[in-house]
Amino acid sequence: MLTQIINGRILTPQGWLKDGSVILRDNKILEVTNCDLAVIGAELIDARGMYVLPGGVEMHVHGGGGRDFQEGTEDAYRTAVAAHAKHGTTSIFPTLSSSTVDMIYRAIETCEKLMAEKDSPILGLHLEGHYLNPGKAGAQIMSWIKNPDPNEYIPIVERARCLARWDAAPELPGALQFGKFCAEKGILPSIAHTMAEYSDVKAAYESGFTHVTHFYNAMPGFHNKMGYKYEGTVESVYLLDDMTIECIADGIHVPPTILRMAYKIKGVERMALVSDALAVAAAGKDAKAFDPRVIIEDGVCKLADRSALAGSIATTDRLIRTMVQQAEVPLEDAARMASETPAHIMGVHDRKGALARGKDADIIIMDEKLDVRCVWQMGRIVENTLFSGAGDN
What we know:
The protein is of the alpha/beta class. Helix content is 25%, strand content 28%.
């Protein structure tokens, strides 16, 4: 089926395009053109006064719609993915918090089964832990945290075709060898839940850790020890120009002023937006987190003792709104950080993250308030408040 989106402001890799159109055929973008003349046989979608943006690529998300990826079931995966799709997430890397090995293998099996389906929005599995620093565990389950163990991670990596990313604290014994092994296998090692200072971060980068998980969260900044001042993980990462970061842009995990500073220092190409969302994201009022220790308060997930934040209830559209409306970042840059940048970081930019000829037909239409009005995922409408009579393309 042929679809033509007209009259909107279209965000292309070259910038905004006015009075043009995006033409879809089946699951691909056939053309992005500056001509808005109706194509014979195409269904016309009028996006007048709205923004046409690339679909969100979510590289760190634990669940949604009341379900968590740690459950490991097909139903949990489908429910969470569908819930986020309605808010503009068209590609997703399901994330596990620190887990047991059995939970990891169950997630691998489910993830690979769903990835094998035609036009699947699931692009790979992300393991956040369990090789983390106990001093920065946050809401991770402490009893599951340990040092990297090659007798454990090598069989997992060798078994898993879907594993795309694995996080660790680089200062732990064996962490640099772990990062090098993952990088050699095409898996992105990322710095997370860490006490690393500059020498640790630099050594990690040289070993393959080119990315940083939920930047500013679960890591130290500038600090004092015995009267002397030391750089933290944050300053160390800023000093490594090519190291990429992700920020939880819900306006709570990282204040809008700090989001803006990270954007100004790292730039669009090296800063991705993530939700780090738990099961309660895009869910009903009665939804609960998978972890019974977690409560929802003040628009965010916390441990019940309020000792740490435990993830967000955000979705892709909220990330974009936060960056534009609170951090005062231009919409084109906020949208790129939710789509193009994570696509580059995760190695899927050949088909995701931009509105361009030949790319997958993953598209969001947002109105002037930056509310989602329509979402295409691989050419199929998954959310629509823009026009009536919409069905699957």
